[in-house]
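Example record

One chain of 404 residues, shown exactly as stored in the release files.
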Amino acid sequence: MLSVILPTYARAELSFERGDGAWLTSTDGERYLDFGSGVAVTGLGHSHPHLVAALVGQAGKIWHTSNLYRIPDGERLAERLTGATFADVVFFTNSGAEANEASIKMARKYHAAGGHPERFRIITFEGAFHGRTLATIAAGGQQKYIDGFGPKVDGFDQVPFGDEAALKAAIGPETAAMLIEPVQGEGGVRVVPAQMLRDLRALCDSHGLLLILDEVQTGVGRSGNFFAYEQSGIEPDIMSVAKGIGGGFPMGACLATREAARGMTVGTHGSTFGGNPLAMSVGNAVLDVVLEPAFLDRVKQAGLALKQRLAELQDRHPRVVGEVRGVGLLMGLKMRVPNVDFVKAARARHLLTIAAGDNVVRLLPPMIVTDAEIAEAVRRMDAACSDIEATMLDLEMAEPKGAA
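Predicted structure tokens for this chain:
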């Protein structure tokens, strides 16, 4: 029987009925260790009691009023976000793509408000992923997402990752901003070196450009800092946030300095659902946990423990694992076999992981993961590697002697 859901996802034949912390239970009663977190979304794990209480409590009060009226919990969340970051103002959205759209519009409007509407182009980087709207697929520049959707949205100039000469050559009189992820998640868990971010900041300053950071996947503690930009010692002008900020409830945000947002006046942008009371209640509950003094230190410690164990896994299985990448609890394994084969083998061992570009497997455990759960996950990865090696050996044994 054909599904009536649009077939845009390659879904595994697996579904879940409940979750608890770092674990999911399937509809047939099997338990799985979740090292995908819904693609870096359920950062506090499944059914976190503080988030559940916030959502249930708010659901019994009021869900939605629209942005025609003040939303006190939204004002509180914005104050907390600006108090803990570079930003002065916040616009709430429903997703990362919408947060990036707001960032792009803000950068263009900044220059238009300053008398330079011709400055609308944004420099982006190969391997990027910024969302699936027409503008954000153009910003990401990956042809597989662009093909078949008509003319590419104009205004984005993509340069090779780490190519300083190409970057400088791309800056022209129409350039408005640069847009980059501190860690390319979909692009293969490629960490942008701190010096590269500092160089981008300096280039933006010298050319009057805005620096936009896409922290949709890296933000809200995932890197071991509240936001990954903190590790480089620089600050952006605009930043997009989503995924972890809602703990599983769909929400995002665009953060900015007041100067960068100077063109965003009444009527220039909006959202029906963005910042509604349900979302704001959950967002505040997430910050209650993440901004606790010891929480981010624990994420750093867990990230180091995971990275060390993954290095040992690579040493044990060099034919399967080629490289360990990442920061905090956003880790990646560059594979020597197809990444989808490893994802499937790990799933057979009841461990959930996620494929990414550059033949990488992403590991995104919830930030509340324990040392014992990290050890168990690596044990299951070790078994998955052994399963793959056994298959490789069978294929080699089956090859005719003298075959090329």
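Notes: The mean pLDDT is 96.
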